[in-house]
TrEMBL record:
Keywords: Cell membrane, Membrane, Transmembrane, Transmembrane helix
Topology of the protein relative to the lipid bilayer: Multi-pass membrane protein
Keyword Lipoprotein carried by entry: no
A Pfam family that the UniProt record links to this protein: TauE
Membrane-crossing segments per the record: 41-58, 65-85, 91-109, 121-149, 169-186, 193-212, 218-237
Family: Belongs to the 4-toluene sulfonate uptake permease (TSUP) (TC 2.A.102) family.
Biological source species: Bradyrhizobium niftali
Species lineage: Bacteria, Pseudomonadati, Pseudomonadota, Alphaproteobacteria, Hyphomicrobiales
Compartments in which it is found: Cell membrane; Membrane
GO annotation, cellular component aspect: plasma membrane
Designated name of the protein: Probable membrane transporter protein
Keyword field contains Acetylation: no
Segments forming a coiled coil: none
Domain of life, source organism: Bacteria
């Protein structure tokens, strides 16, 4: 059952340019996985999903590296630092629950209309945002893409189409360094990670194809928001 749900989550998230870290954490919370396994497992699945999406988007030459480079410059060290921080189980679940609720609020407010980027990206601002998102990514295991896309769109630094292609490489880079960081703290992913990864990859393949064929993400976003809200409340009250 867990593998099937992971594949579905991966498909839905990949179709809107995300890896699924928030929903993977939600699913793990539902199944009662320990907090020491939740973060590295979610980061590991992020890597699998985002790696495929990054490869496919880059092959189709739709990744705007001019925007992505300064984001990665600051976010990757911050994500590593976040991965090295170990929180008490209750604190981790509460913080992650709040992050999931914030992610759901961000997704609700995210604009659905496409618009071309009209503003240049201020270097100081984009580096600061990258650092903040990287820290959250490594600390909780969410990947950061669910916050990156609406931030870029709201600030008019990128169009929705651009953010769909920017999110996977951002998630891939930060999840990778965050994942490495967790090993230094003695946290290890679920023994079933390989099986989960195969399911996630299958979903990512289907979801990325859907994304490249311009699926309207409004309905998918509604489902994802519902999952995030339920899981966020569950973690906060745990």
């Amino acid at each position: 059952m867990a593998c099937l749900l992971i594949a579905i989550i991966s498909l839905l998230y990949a179709s809107v340019g995300q890896a699924g870290g928030t929903a993977f954490l939600s699913l793990m919370a539902f199944f009662g996985m320990s907090s020491t396994e939740m973060r590295p497992t979610a980061l590991g699945l992020n890597i699998v999903v985002a790696a495929y999406s990054t490869w496919l988007f880059n092959r189709n030459k739709v990744v705007d590296w001019a925007i992505l480079r300064p984001l990665l410059f600051s976010s990757m060290p911050a994500s590593l630092a976040g991965g090295l921080i170990v929180l008490d189980g209750h604190v981790y679940k509460t913080l992650t629950g709040l992050v999931l609720l914030l992610a759901s609020a961000v997704m609700i407010m995210q604009r659905g209309r496409a618009a071309d980027r009209v503003c240049e990206t201020p270097l100081t601002a984009i580096v600061s945002i990258g650092a903040a998102l990287g820290l959250v990514s490594g600390l909780t295991g969410v990947g950061g893409g669910v916050f990156l896309a609406p931030t870029l769109i709201t600030l008019n630094w990128a169009s929705p189409k651009q953010t769909v292609a920017l999110s996977p490489p951002f998630i891939l880079a930060n999840s990778t360094v965050g994942f490495v960081g967790t090993f230094f703290t003695g946290q290890f992913p679920s023994p079933d990670l390989a099986l989960y990864a195969i399911s996630a990859l299958a979903g990512a393949v289907a979801g990325t194809i859907v994304s490249l064929n311009c699926l309207n993400p409004a309905g998918i976003r509604f489902i994802l928001v519902a999952v995030l809200v339920i899981a966020g409340i569950q973690l906060v009250l745990a």
